[in-house]
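Q: Protein A?
A:
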Amino acid sequence: MQKSDLNRVNKYLWEIPKSYRKKMKVPVRIYASEKLLKNIFEDKSLPQLVNVASLPGIVKHALGMPDVHQGYGAPIGGVGATKFPDGLISPGFIGFDENCGVRLLKTSYSAEEINKQVENLATEMQRRVPSGVGTGRDLKFNRNELDKILRRGVERLVEKGYAREEDVENCESSGRMKQADPSAVSDEAKGRGEDQLGTLGSGNHFLEIQEVDQIFNEEVAQEFKLSEGQAVVMIHTGSRGFGHQVCTDYLDTIKKAVGKYNINLPDKNLAGIPLNTSEGKRFFKAMSCSANYAWSNRQMITHFVRKAWKSVLGKENLKLLYDVAHNIAKVEEHVVNGDKQKLIVHRKGATRAFPPSHPELPEHYKEVGQPVLVPGSMGTSSYVCVGTEQSKETFHSVNHGAGRVMSRNAAVDQFPGQKVVKDLEDRGITVKFKDYKGIAEEASGAYKNVNEVVKVVNKAGLSKKVARLKPLAVIKGE
C-alpha cells in the first residue's frame, strides 16, 4: 500500500476507499497527521484495517486511531462495528488482554506537598501491588467467590470492603457487563485468575504518581476536580492471565466454527463468528467475565494503593476520576446512515469517548462529557481529555495511548535499560522496576509522541484536551 492509495478527507483524516479491494464492505478511515501517517506505513496496520473492512456484517467504516499499529489479526488502535445480533464478534479484534484499561485517582495533595515522600510512596506501592508475568498475590479468591466477582464486577467488591459506592459510579459500565456468565469460562482461566486480582502484570502496564502539569479547559477541569499542581495516580493494566486464557480458549473454538457457518475471512487470526450463534453467545458471556475481572483487578489495585498512601502519609483520600476500558466489544446504539442501530462495537487499543448527555454517563459527568484517559509512554506526559459529540464519527471512540513504533526486541537493541533509567532519574522521575530488559522494552523512543497523537484527536474534535499529567514516579509492571 502507498500513500497514493489514500484519499485525504481533511488535515487529520484519511480514507482508503471501498474500491481499494473487491472484498471490502466499507471504507477505512485513519485519523493521523502527516508525521504519524509515516509511522503507520512502517507496519501492517493499514492492510489489517482493510481486512477489518472486509468482515461480514461490518457497517459504516473501519477506523484507525492516530496510535494505530500492527497487532494480532486486527491492529491495536482499531475500531469497527458489526450489525447486532447477526454480525461477527471477533476475539482477535478485541485482543488477548481483554479489558486492558486505565483509571485515574485524584488525591487531596499537591505534588509539592508529597515531594519528599514520592520515593517512599513508590516503594510502598510497589510492595503492595505485585507485578510480573504469572505473578499472583497471597490474597486468593476461591472458585465460588471468584464466580461472584466475574458475574457482578466491582459492585461485589463493595460488599467485600475493597471498593466504595463512588468507585462503582465512576467506572465505565459501573464496572460490570451484565452479560457475564462464569459457566462460559474454562477451569484453566479461572485457575489463572484466582490469585491475580490486585496485580499489575507486565509489558506496558504501570502505576504512576503524576502531577497535573497544565490545564487546557478550566471549566471541565473544575467539573473533574482537577487543578494545576495536584498529585494524581494512574493505573494501567487489564485482565491478566484470566483474560488471556479466555481469548486463547475462544480463538481456538471460533477458528474451528468458521467453516461450520460458511464465513469467509481475510485473515484466520481475525476469526469471528455471528454473535447470535451458540459459540458467539458463549464467547460474549466469557469476554464479559474478563471485562468484569479487569475492572475488579484495577479496583483491587486501587484498594492497595490507598493503603500504601495511608501507610506513608497517614491518610489517603484517593478518589476515582474514571476508569475506561480499551480492549473490548460492547453492544451499543449508534446512528448509521441516519438510523439509530444496535451494533457490536469492537475497540482494540481504543477507548470510548461519550459526549455530554450520553445516557451511559454518571449524572455528574452528563453536562460536560466522559473523562477520556490517555496514558503516555514511560516517562512522558499522559492526558485527561473529554468526549465530544463529534466522536459519533468514530462510534464515540478515540486512541488509548501513544502507540508503538518498534517491537520490544528492537527497543531492547536500541535503548539500553541502564541508560533509560538514568535519563528518567536525571529528569527527577523515580523508577521502580525488576530488570533492565523490561525497562528497555518500554523506552519512550519505542513509542509515538503522545503529544502529537493527542493533538490529532483534539484537532479532529473527537475529544478535547482537559489536562496534561507529568510523571513523578513510575512503578513498572514486568
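Q: Protein B?
A:
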Amino acid sequence: MKKSIFVFLLILIGTSAGYAQEKDTVKVGVFITSLYDMSLPDNSFKADFWLWFNYTNDRLDMLESVEIINAKEVDKQIPSTEKKNGINWSTQKYQVVLKKQWNIEHFPFDRQNLEIFFEEAVADTSAIYLIADKKNSRLAEQVRIQGWKITSFDIVNGVSLYHTTYGDPVLSGESAYGHIKVQIRMQRSGIGLFLKLFIGVYIAFAISLLVYFIEPIQIDSRVGLSVGSLFAAVGNKYIVDSILPETINFTLVDKVHLLTFFLIFIALTVSVVSFYLEKGEKLRLAKRWDFVAFSISLILYIIFNAWLLYQAYYSEAEAFMYGNKF
C-alpha cells in the first residue's frame, strides 16, 4: 500500500514538473490599415493597425501584457476576446506614434525601414513564446504614402535578451522576452523633391558665374554679386535643414552646399585678383584668369554634383539591398 502511494506521488510530482516547464505559444498577427505623418524633424511616423493573438491558455491576457517598444504615443481601441474552436482570439485596434531614427545621409534619395516592435512585457520566454502569423499579416491595399514607394512587408519573431533580471529572485544574470517585429521597406521618389529643394542653390551658383563676364575693374559689382549668391546659397541651406533631423553625419545636402560655398568663394577671390591685374595694366591676363576660373568652376561643379548624386543613389540602393539600413 505504501509502495503504491509512493509511486503515485512520484507520478504526480513528475506530471506537475512537466506542466510547470511547458510554455505557452502565442501566435501574433498585424494588419496595417494606414501609415502617415512621416516626420523627419520629429523622428517619428504614425500607424493605424489591428493586432491579434491566438492562444489556448485562458489565464493569459495578451492585450495587456504585450507592449510596443518603439512607441511614443499609443491609443488602444475596440478590445475583444472570444474563444473559437478551443482557441482564444484577442484583437485590438491601435493608433500609434512611433519613433524612427531616419537615415538622411543620402536624402532625398534615401530608403527607409519602418519598424513596429512588439514585446511580451510580463512573462519571459520560459513561460510565453511569441510566433509571427505570417499568413494573415499584411498591409491594407489602400495604404499609400505620398512621395514613397513601399517595396516590401515582413513580420518576424525573435527573442530580446536583457542583461538584467529586473530583480526577479528566480532568475540570475539575464532575462529573455519574446518579441514580434514588423518591417516595412520604403523607397523615396526623390527626383522631384531634389529639384524643389536644390534649385535655389543651383541658381545661386549660376549667378556667381556671371561675375566672370563683368569687367574686372567693376570690382564693386563683382563682389556684390558674389556675396548675394553666397547669401542665397546659405538661405537655401537653412530651408533644407529645417525639414531634416539633426545629424552628425555629412549628408548629401551638406556636400552639395559646401561645394557651392567653396566655388562662390573662389569667384570672389578671382574677382579681387583680376581687379589688381587690370589695375596693373594686364587686362589680357585678367580676362584669361577669369576664363580659366569660369571653365574650371563650371566643369568641377557639374562633375562633382553628378558624382555625389550617383554615389548617393547607388550606395543607398546597395546598402538597403543587403539590409545595412535597419
